[in-house]
Amino acid sequence: MADEAPALDQGGLHGLVRTATYEHPTLSTTLIDTDATTPADAVAAELGHSTGREEVALRTGQRFVARIRPGAPCTAESGTDRVRTDGSYIVTGALGGLGLLVVQWLVEQGAAHVVVCARTSPSPQARKVLDGLERSGATISLILGDIRDTAEQAVAAASEKGTLSGVVHAAAVVEDATLANVSAKLLDRVWAGKAEGAWSLHQATLGHELDFWIGFSSVASLLGSPGQAAYAAANSWLDDLIAWRHAHNLPATGIHWGPWSEVGRGQGMAQRGFAMISPHEGIDALHRILRAGHVQTAYSPLDLSRWVALYPQAADAALFTDVLPRGNGTEGNSSVLDALTAATSDSHRMGILLDHIIACIRDCLGGTTRTITPTTSLVMIGVDSLTAVQLSQRLARTLKILIETGILWVKPTPRGLAEWILHRMGYTPTSP
What we know:
It is a single chain. This protein has two domains: 1-323, Rossmann fold; 335-424, Non-ribosomal Peptide Synthetase Peptidyl Carrier Protein, Chain A (Orthogonal Bundle), CATH 1.10.1200.10. The protein is α/β, with parallel strands linked by helices. It has a seven-stranded parallel β-sheet, with helices on both faces. It is globular. 42% of the residues lie in helices and 13% in strands.
């Protein structure tokens, strides 16, 4: 809700729920956000009538549903892209691809002092970049360690050699795991840099007159990201912190970045046919977003239809109502289903289904050319928990039946899966 300070102790839920929409479509997950004025019977009514896959906010008798809308944000406030020549700046995650670009940008804009925060020492390539910036006249201070533990040290270093004028929080840890496999240790690793690091920076910079406080978020929190539940939740918490700071009249800019080319963790998406953000384009976008004064902005060239292609039921989430056609779930004709119905023998029907299952496996594995036979182990060819979710949803959509993801581990070959599916569909072998 615009201009409303979110409850930070509940932060991260939006990213978690959006990810669940992909991984567990049968749950029809709904998130209901209430305030102190919402009566219990209104919540009960919402629970009783929810159609699922919605994010609902109930406020003073009104009902709001979250939607993604393309285009520039409707409102903005007076922003600033000024970089002070006498100012000091903190960049976290500063030795990663995006963070290092930001450090270079700040120096190019005239920053005399940049505090570079990172968990590990610079790589030879990063060290070369930092040495070049120092030769140009900039002062670079290096702070190593988790930013949740070193935020005050970074602020002290920035204040020692100038006036702390801006913060860019780009720290992130990405570890893939489906919701069912998120452990406490994995969550702590992912949460530490993005969420706890942001909180430490927020607290350490209170009382400083900043021109900007920027949080690098991800489209993972905005769209949901299958297989990245912890990462989506951590970024979603950062989004809430940005909103909280803005509501309390503190500098706050949040950017949901899509995948960048050449740098960052999403480079591999180019191989899957996704459009990417070039470094030059991304830095230019950062400049323009700051100047325009937008508080929360998504900057991404992602093709949403392609994004949800492997999770067709997710496309029917209310979040995508304004950007995707409805009915992308299980509706429509299925040629393979028609072929199975028309098959004249059990062996013919089994052959049709095996061909279809193997083709779906290849698609879910990125078009692999590896040999896949009816008895090939799905695990041995690289089907993991996330691929299993994709495969079960692809087969469920084309065959019009419910296929629990766990079945793939019980029937871990194309033939075993085909036999189970044929039995589920009501086809039993005829007597010779």
